What we know:
This protein is an all-alpha fold. It folds into 2 domains: 3-440, no CATH class; 441-516, no CATH class. Helix content is 81%, strand content 0%. It has helices spanning 3-7, 14-49, 52-72, 76-87, 93-127, 132-136, 141-160, 164-187, 193-217, 232-267, 269-283, 290-305, 309-336, 338-344, 353-368, 372-377, 382-407, 409-435, 442-460, 470-495, 500-512. Helix 15 packs parallel to helix 18 (409-435). The radius of gyration is 23 Å and the shape is globular. The model is unreliable at 1-20 (pLDDT under 50).
Amino acid sequence: MEGPCKLLFLGQNPTRVGIIEKQSIKGSFYSYIGAVIGFVTAGLLLPQIFTKAENGVIDLLTSWSLIFATLATLGLNNVTVRLFPWFRNKNNHHNGFFGILFWVNIAGFLLALLLYFVLRPWIIADSIGQSALFVRYIDYIIPLTAFTTIYLVIDIYYSVLMNAVRGIFLKELVQRVLILLVILAFVMGLFRFDGFILYYTVALSLPGIIIALLLMKDGEFILRPQPGFLDSELKKSLVSVAFFGLTIGFSNILILYMDRLMINSFLGEEEVGVYGRAAFYGTLVSIPIRSLSKISSAVIGQHWKDDDHQSINRLYRDTSLHQIIFGLLIFIGIWGNISNVFHILPEDYASGPYVVFFIGLANLFIMASGISGSIMTTSSHYRLLALFVVLFGVIVIATNLIFIPVMGITGAALSAAISSLCYALMRFVFLWKRYRMQPYTWRHALAIGIALVAYLPAILIPDLYNSDHKWISLILDVCVRSLAISTVFIALTLGLKVSADLNERWNRILAWLKIK
């Protein structure tokens, strides 16, 4: 369960990261448990219970609300990561830093709300032909935006307070459990789809409510900024970092969900539903990075403040290697079971296999780049990262315009893979040219080679699926293929000593079990 989050802190200052290390283990645990629950809900239940159009509505509401919520933060999440070390003072409530976050984000939410009402007629006009069901529920975007904004702001604040696990627990575990309960209540006939959307909105909103209450309980919900602390130079830095942070954050979210919005425009909400459910399996590849990204930003921000480039470079190298190892294992495990995935999904989702492949590949490209994004976000070159993200967005839009009309939802997934590779290369080239930081060694190539060898059992093992005994044969086939792939991959990774850290962890486990 430790994964790359734990490995992130090997070799670092134990005084600084001891608490974070423990929380990273908890965060990884919650992420993996949440992924299992998410698989049950998004991977199994939603496609079976709801129509393609209804699944499209769910994805579109989430996509639009995240776009507006990111705008509402006004870039202050980037300010939190980059500038909080200069405010840090526990005895003085961190010089009123949360008060700045709170009042600026109130203004940001009002701005996002205004933009929503300006864009609402256009969204309706664009959707009314092929996505009429989405139009019926469009105003749920407002509460989803409000509570998502609250969560985003407080979650990142807890991260710099070295308590990232709290937000991970609420988002990855509590929210997924609530969604599962809402789905089960729907299956039991307690309400119709109208009621499902209402309670689904409540489930998505509760993490924001709970995390705000916890901040109050901890005595950190201080709304009054510290008088006189902000000098002109710090104010200038706040505005600059916020502006470019907004550009980065807004572009990132838009990029993540642009494919769904463009599929809706070109093909309609039913194809959004197919794409969203298929893409879910591809996003499973990114599980190891979910808690790592938040934890790493807090650590790297402190390293920049301390001018400790050596520690940053070591984190860059180690996270890239460990992320690609874990990511490759998940990727070949999913692709090795791709026929089983589409035995699980209804027949009208049959156009989705290469959506899984290309979305998984897109996540692998980003994972192989390690924490290059966090390094640039917290560095003095955050403005250049904003330019990279904008270029990333241009590539996403251009490739979607090219591939969706020709290849449908597979084209959107291919666009994601091409765009992610370009974005990863931009960050790699800059960090190499500017700081001589680069994470890649022969071990990365070895890990890829091991993955190719470990995939062979998926090809060689005969198909055990039998439609007369669907679930028994399906479970048997998944277990046999997954066990074979995992055994070969893990044995070769440890035997060839791709990662000294992983071998060290393995030896500790054996010693604990008294096998060695």
